[in-house]
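thought: fold this chain, then report.
action: predict
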Amino acid sequence: MDLRRLRLALSQIGVRASRHLPEPRGLLIGLEDLPPKWTVLDERRWRSGAGAEPWAVRVRRLGGLTAWRSFKAPSNDRWLWVQATPLATDEDADAARAGFLNRTLKNPSAQVRIMASHDGPPLAVAASHTTTLEQLTTGPAGPGSARYLVWSHGPIVSALSASAFGEPWPWTSLVDLARKQNQRIDAVLTR
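observation:
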């Protein structure tokens, strides 16, 4: 087990809600935001701020948490995971977004190889800064893809990863899901 995966596993033990930042599970899209018959595969929470960057130090001091939820289509050829991390400030969320894709872990259960990776198109998610990435894959079921959309909305940095065999997810679908997550973020932050 590599060191980053071990740190993530340890950061999930005894996780308590922050007294200073919102509970991130309430920021994530759910089954009601997806087509019928999708299912939740997994959901996790862990302590945020494992790095030495100033934003990471601040969120760690505030007891910040990250939440992640993954879904599967009934056709078993499309998957989605979503993530949200409340941070101390809007500027901290933008800084965390900028380096997000450098901190991701490889999915150990994915039976695909990445054949190519490139930046995705510039996308507009209302009142947000975004980063996109597309990976072309191959595996037992043939060619596939994973598209990533990472954005900051206020003091929250969020991410979507939409993977599929065959035809990739349309970028417009990712933007629609990001907007739904932003609506949840706005509802939580204005309480």
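thought: worth noting. The longest strand covers residues 142-153.
final: tokens above.
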